[in-house]
Design a protein that fits this description.
Layout (H helix, E strand, L loop, with lengths): L5 E4 L5 H9 L15 E7 L5 E10 L2 E9 L8 H15 L4 E6 L4 H9 L3 E6 L9 E7 L6
Parallel strand pairs: 4-5
Antiparallel strand pairs: 1-2, 2-3, 3-4, 5-7, 6-7
Bound molecules: coenzyme A.
């Protein structure tokens, strides 16, 4: 039987694999994460340490902002995003954060559905925020307690 994918901290040596996943989206990667204070990352690894997904977030006072969350294209809709997100909630809770924020494009229907399913609410819109002129929707999740 195959071992189930496991969560661990994202390491600098994971950047190339993470870039590969991010490039599937053609989006910007937070290359500076290992050297930026308060930024932390987790990864979901499968057989042979293959990177299934990752999440990078920033902790400031009572807030955690999700900067990037990506699951490998071929492995989506299997609950791996859920696993990553709930680990981020637990880490955020352990750091004393009470809210989790993120930005998402209005065109990113899978991500919006994913966030709403996990208790995020749309609280604001930043007009023409992205380089291509897309707005950014700001979503907020209030942390209640350690999630499992
Ligand atoms: C958003 C993302 C991380 C979700 O990861 P995932 O592993 O597919 O998510 P899960 O399997 O845990 O959750 C599935 C839920 O996500 C949403 N979802 C995922 N893919 C979807 C799709 N193609 N269409 C609609 N909803 C979708 C649904 O709410 C779904 O729940 P349901 O099965 O009850 O309908 C993944 O789609 C991804 O990596 N997207 C590209 C990167 C990205 O856009 N990141 C967010 C930037 S803000």
């Amino acid at each position: 039987m195959l071992a189930s994918p496991s969560i661990s901290p994202l390491e600098p040596q994971d950047v190339q694999q993470a870039l590969g996943l991010q490039n599937e989206e053609g989006d910007t990667f937070w290359l500076s994460w290992p050297n930026t204070p308060n930024i932390f990352g987790i990864k979901l690894s499968g057989e042979g340490n293959a990177l299934y997904g990752f999440c990078i977030a920033q902790h400031v006072f009572d807030e955690v902002e999700i900067l990037s969350i990506v699951v490998k294209k071929a492995l989506r809709e299997k609950g791996y995003g859920h696993k990553l997100l709930h680990n981020i909630f637990d880490i955020a809770h352990s750091k004393g954060a009470t809210n989790v924020f993120l930005e998402v494009r209005p065109t990113n229907i899978p991500a919006i559905s994913f966030y709403k399913k996990h208790g995020f609410k749309h609280i604001a819109t930043r007009r023409h925020y992205y380089k291509n002129g897309d707005d950014a929707l700001i979503f907020k999740h209030i942390l209640q307690q350690a999630s499992t």
